[in-house]
Amino acid sequence: MKALMFGWEFPPHILGGLGTASYGLTKGMSLQQDMEITFVIPKPWGDEDQSFLRIIGANQVPVVWKEADYQYVMPRVANADNYFNFRNGIRYDFSRIGTNDIGCINFSGRYPENLLEEISNYEAVASVLAHSLEFDVIHSHDWLTYPAGIFAKNISGKPLVIHVHATDYDRSRGQVNPDVYRIEKAGMDNANHIITVSNLTRQTVIEKYHQHPDKVTTVHNAVEPLDFVSQLKKPERKDKIITFLGRITMQKGPEYFVEVAACVLAHTKGVRFVMAGSGDMMNKMIRLVAQKGIADKFYFTGFLSGKKVYEMLAQSDAYMMPSVSEPFGISPLEAMQCGTPSIISKQSGCAEILEHAIKTDYWDINAMADYIHAIVKYPAMYKSLRINGLAEIETIKWEYAGQKVRDIYEKVRH
User: What is the pTM of this model?
Assistant: First the structure.
């Protein structure tokens, strides 16, 4: 079974959970003996793990024919043979798109202001790949890659599976961007099957995007095993640390974390709070912390990546995810994997599968504050959450999620 996947992020260069989920799922699927995955991203950096899949950089696929010989091309791309093979797959006139001297598009590999333009350009790359590669199924991850998947489907006639990691209803608290909604809706309408990361997201897809329930299947995310987890140590210290780790945006409810911190610090000594991450609400949160008069007990680390994420989680005494609308939320699983108890909102997809995380409504500041007080003041509660959490995470594997996706592939092919 050969899958052509379109994605936007892949570790170690990630800006959110999309890349983490893409990595975990593909690695889990690779354990199936006859599974071959080609994963396309706008701009690889060269240090991605390709031991279990093939990565193609959209920025190294020519969309405009340029006269260039092998010696000229070779230092400019990772694989010159691929370049010339793809160049023979150019079927349409994309001269309107700005390209470099070998006919390739310079993607940012991020989420720039001209994101819609990059999505459209990515679609052009998909057409070249659809004419150049052999595959049995197309799999598009998140809305950014749905147009590419649709174009590849129309060219190849192969079935399209789209993966909904989040909808704009989640990202915007209901203030939906009409351009994004249009792209999401088109992807769903044109897909042979839709995968959602939670039943919460599945319901949104059915109700807000008017998709038939039979067309939508939930495949919950999982967590990648850590080979260095035994090396992660919690240092001996007097104060307890409570951590928020993620994008500091309205979807994640960072203001509720600050409110909880203020509530806890008003009644409980020996506690410090950490907000790790970056986002458009960061400056607002810094001001809110100052207004609450808790700046001496509250720390902002900025964006963390790679091993630093797990080191931060391991050093924490509790992890808190007060998301207003979270399609899934992998970070609580990562925290529990490090032996750190998690407090999550009932409005998150991971709440559907986690039995040993504390669950509250995102707006229930007093409840979250009470739970934090209990975790830091009652060692037995902390120990119980830690031990049971570690055991539970052992049962949530990407291999199982990968098998469910493979079953969907088989379904759409017949």
Answer: 0.92
